[in-house]
Design a protein that fits this description.
Elements: E1 4-9, H1 15-23, E2 28-34, H2 38-41, E3 52-54, H3 58-62, E4 67-70, H4 77-86, E5 90-93, H5 101-114, E6 118-120, H6 128-139, E7 145-155, H7 164-180, E8 186-192, E9 202-208, E10 214-220, E11 222-234, E12 238-242, E13 250-259, E14 265-273, H8 282-296, H9 304-322
Parallel strand pairs: 1-2, 1-4, 2-3, 4-5, 5-6, 7-10
Antiparallel strand pairs: 7-11, 8-9, 9-10, 11-12, 12-13, 13-14
This protein binds nicotinamide-adenine-dinucleotide (NAD).
Nicotinamide-adenine-dinucleotide is lined by residues 9-15, 34-37, 40, 57, 71-74, 76, 94-95, 121, 123.
Length: 335
């Protein structure tokens, strides 16, 4: 089997994790690492396996690598991905694909013209817990889905170039699109910038779907606890996916509320089921999909069009934020 060679651009927090997972795959080599900041590359320069490091990013595009991974700040994704595609490289770009819809559309079209794979780092689409959840949704066992609640909060990491919506919500939006295979029709946002001026660090997104399903996403960099949770409320069952609890990642509740005798509501309290989940690191599965797509000429799961859909929702959220509806004053009352 032919060895596939990759270049990784961006050697900060996430780039080395992708490189480690790519390198763990058979017949795959990370041949080049590039970062504008030479200090980031310092730990790699003494590498004995011939790995080339550079601060000249174009050198990656001119090299013989088959594919390029882009793990740099969001504002740089478009131009780096565009250059890589123009040089005929397959591209895995971190989430979100770009910082606006026009750029995402252009990259999707360019990848098609160039016959290159364009993939986005929607890691949670490769998470075994999310995949089990998707099977459950598609089995119909949850019944009619009323609503979804997603929480992704922790202390930091603050970004300087984007707000918390563009940083964290891509994960929840990609999970929703992947689970339900339908895009929201409306987005309404409430967000606040507490620490840095004009960079919202706490946000609530309300998504409305054509069939009446609703989804609420809470993302925050300003929270004492790490919560990565998705709760789905169906009329037959309810389920909680908790990414921070590997032993009990999914809990399926046989609980519900029904109209008993109009208008009386009755409640069901049944057993909780915790399915076993065979765990594989999601980033490894993501890298495998990238490599297999290149080898077989097939579309990866988190392909460019999926990335574009996520950017469309983010852009709608940003538009909603800019036009935050008028707030109704709370009129003081005398007690
Ligand atoms: N999929 C996930 O779960 C996940 C997790 C974390 C981060 N990310 C994504 O990965 C990307 C990088 O995030 P990070 O946390 O590693 O950031 P980081 O700040 O730790 O690292 C970014 C690196 O890119 C370098 N850089 C900046 N501009 C560059 C340019 N034009 N050319 C080359 N190098 C450049 C910086 O010097 C830095 O070393 C972001 O898009 C982020 O959204 C994804």
């Amino acid at each position: 089997m032919r060895e596939l060679r990759f270049g990784v651009i961006g050697w900060g927090y996430w780039g080395p994790k992708i490189a480690r997972n790519l390198e763990s795959l058979p017949h795959v080599t990370v041949a080049m690492v590039a970062d504008l900041d030479a200090r980031r590359l310092a730990s790699l320069t003494a590498s004995p396996n011939g790995l080339q490091t550079t601060t000249e990013i174009e050198a990656v595009f001119r090299s013989d690598v088959d594919g390029v991974v882009i793990a740099t700040p969001v504002r740089t994704h478009y131009e780096l991905a565009r250059q890589a595609l123009l040089h005929g490289k397959h591209v895995l770009v971190e989430k979100p694909l770009t910082a606006n819809v026009e750029e995402a559309e252009e990259l999707v079209a360019l990848a098609e013209t160039q016959g290159c794979i364009l993939m986005v780092g929607h890691t949670f689409e490769y998470n075994p817990g999310v995949n089990e959840l998707r099977k459950l949704v598609q089995s119909g066992d949850l019944g009619k889905i009323y609503c979804v609640e997603a929480e992704r909060v922790n202390l930091g990491l603050y970004r300087q170039d984007i707000n918390v919506i563009w940083d964290l919500a891509p994960h929840d939006i990609s999970i929703l699109l992947y689970l339900f295979g339908k895009r929201p029709e409306t987005v309404k946002v409430q967000a606040h910038a507490h620490l840095l001026p004009s960079i919202q660090d706490v946000a609530h997104l309300d998504l409305g779907f054509a069939d009446g399903m609703s989804a609420h996403i809470h993302v925050s960099w300003l929270h004492p606890c790490k919560i990565r949770r998705v709760t789905i409320i169906g009329d037959a069952r309810m389920v909680v996916y908790d990414d921070t609890n590997p032993a009990e990642m999914l809990k399926i509740y046989n609980k519900g509320a029904d109209i008993h005798v109009d208008p009386v509501v009755s409640y069901r309290f049944g057993a909780i089921t915790i399915p076993h989940i065979d765990w594989v690191e999601p980033l490894r599965l993501e890298c495998e999909d990238f490599v297999n797509s290149i080898r077989n000429g097939t579309e990866p799961r988190a392909n460019g069009r999926v990335g574009l859909e996520v950017v469309r929702v983010l852009a709608a959220a940003q538009a909603s934020l800019l036009q935050q509806e008028h707030h109704v004053s709370v009129v003081p009352i005398s007690l």
